[in-house]
Each structure stands twice: as C-alpha cells, then as structure tokens.
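INFO batch 0412 | record 1 of 1 | parsing
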Amino acid sequence: MKIMSFNVRINVEVDKMNSWEYRKDEVAKFINKEHPDIIGLQEPNLEMLDYLMDKLTRYRMVGLPRSNNGEFTPILYDTLKLTLVFTETFWLSDSPNKESRFETSFYIRIATYGLFKTNEDKFISVVNTHLDYQSEEIQCMQMKVILDYLKQKTIYPQVIMGDFNAIPSASIHQLLHENEFKSIYLGEQLLCNTFHGFTGITKGEPIDYIYVSKHLKSIHSKILDQKNTENYLSDHFPVTVEITI
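INFO prediction complete | emitting tokens
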C-alpha cells in the first residue's frame, strides 16, 4: 500500500506565477502518475478540491473545512482498492467536536480521520493533519488530541501524517515515539528539506511526516524533490511510503 502526504499550498495571489492556477494541472497529473492508495492533503480549500476531484477519477475525498470557506485536511482514497468504513473531522482543541482552537494556536487546526477496508478484508485507520507553527508546546497539545482520539477507536493499524511544522528534533516526535508510532524516516537516508518555498532547495530538515503504528511495516519511503515542470508543484515536497499491513 502506498501512502502520500502532500501540502499543496493554499491559493493566494501573493504567489504570483506559483499560485494554484498555474500549478493545478500538474498537481493532478502528478497524483495520477504516482497513484497512491491513500493521500493526505494539507491547505486545499473547496475550490481546489473540486478541481482535483474532477481530475482524480479513481479517488473519493473525506473531510470537512476547519472553518467556513476555510482549509481542509482531506483524505483521498482509491475506490478500486479501498472501501470507506467511517470518517470524521475533529478540531485540535479542548472542544474537538466543534469549531474551536487552543488559545495559543495562531489558527484553527483540524484532523481528518478515516477507517478503510482493503479488498483483502484488512483494515487501516488514517489521520491527516496540519499542526500550528507557533511553538513546540502547542504542537504537542494538538498531537495529544489526535492520540487521545485514536485511543478511543478499535485498534487497527494506524497512520498519522501531515504537515507538523516541526523539525525532527522537536518534542512532538518524542511524544509520538512514546505512543509507539514510528517515523518513516527512521533508518532512511532522506532527512532533507520538505518545505522549500518554491525554491527547490533540498538542504535542511523535514516538517512533513508520515508516522505508522507498530502494527505496520514501512518498506520504502521517499521525499519527491524533483521538479516536474517549470513551476514547482507546491512550496512543499510530497512525502510517500510503501507499507504492508
């Protein structure tokens, strides 16, 4: 099973020639070419998702916006390989069942949960999120909401992915390790930059991650740092991993 996390960058005029209008065709082509079974996107709004879902004909999308006309953290899944069992979007706050945020968070933050069944009758649960960049403390507070949510679910193999806005030395990673989640980067020689600001610079450290529970084995992981067209697909590089359930 192939999983991808990809911050596609919200559509804003300040990006000029890097704005969504100039990238959207290539993003859709790229996803269709890579063809992950499950994709976690960060930052798309409804207009961006409507375009992508029209082009990604084998996929369906689950997730809600973080606020009215706001950004999503959607999960896309290949309907020929997976069946959706249950999905829910929750807010990373003291009140996860309604639109809300921690007082120290710069933005309202959400996570999307999906439980899927494979054609082989195996199950996998997935969380896609985009954490705040304000501090390591708020990132840990938000991740604890996700971990507490997962503890209430039936124990299936679990994936947590997204833009964590945290380099590998940040305390959020210790929290995930203590809860028996493994980074796909461990043991791999690919700890390069994932946020490049449309520059293509690879020197640095990642802030985009895929974590898997102890029930899963990651076979091969990759940061897709190549330039596909005259424009970069986003200001982030996509991250992929192949796993066995």
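INFO post-check: The first helix runs from residue 20 to 34.
INFO record closed
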